[in-house]
Amino acid sequence: MHHHSHSQRDVGRFDDWAPSYERHWMQHLVFDPIQKTLLDLAASQLKSPTSILDVGCGTGRLLRATAARFPAARLEGVDAAPQMVQTAAHLLPPGSTIHFQEATAEALPFADSQFDLVFSTMTFHHWADQNKGVSEVARVLSPGGRWLLADFIGKGVVRHVTQLLRLHRFLDRSRLDNLLAPNGLKVVAEKPAGWLGKSVPVVAIGKVER
Length: 210
Description:
The chain is α/β, with parallel strands linked by helices. It has one domain (3-207): Rossmann fold. The protein has seven helices and seven strands. The chain has helices at residues 6-21, 25-45, 61-69, 82-90, 130-140, 156-164, 173-180; strands spanning 51-55, 74-79, 99-102, 115-121, 141-150, 185-193, 197-207. It has a seven-stranded mixed β-sheet with strand order 3-2-1-4-5-7-6, with helices on both faces. α1 runs parallel beside α4. Residues 1-6 have low confidence and may be disordered.
């Protein structure tokens, strides 16, 4: 397993998975509590965001829920897997203004300071170059904006499991802070995701005031 081939392999696997992805039990058990927590935290951080980006949007489930919560916001989703982007577009209700396109976290196709909210749920560990991805998120985030990141963060048992499985791509907090600081970002709030508790926190990240 060569490290650099990791993301390509992941993308291929998600392509195979896309059509059945929405019906998968993982959605309800794992992703639903994460999405609810993330949207609650987003709403408590920003009253009325005007533009929202979901990085690694998959089949667009989170953005469809976001549209109900923030109906006035411009909604954009990117995913590295073309099949996911296609499926996301197919699943949109008629008249939806959500826009999906194929792109990676490391090369976001948007101008600077565009988004009040950036979401990434359970995708950060798939990013091929996490440092580049973080700098891209920082670039497209508006000055008062928030990046909401949900991922397995090594605490307690989860930490031992990830170390055991050599899953260094999963974060622990000190590593997250080390990735954020050089990009002018810091954690401003944290909320455990439903029954998943602290092993899957949703973290709100903001720009450090210069």
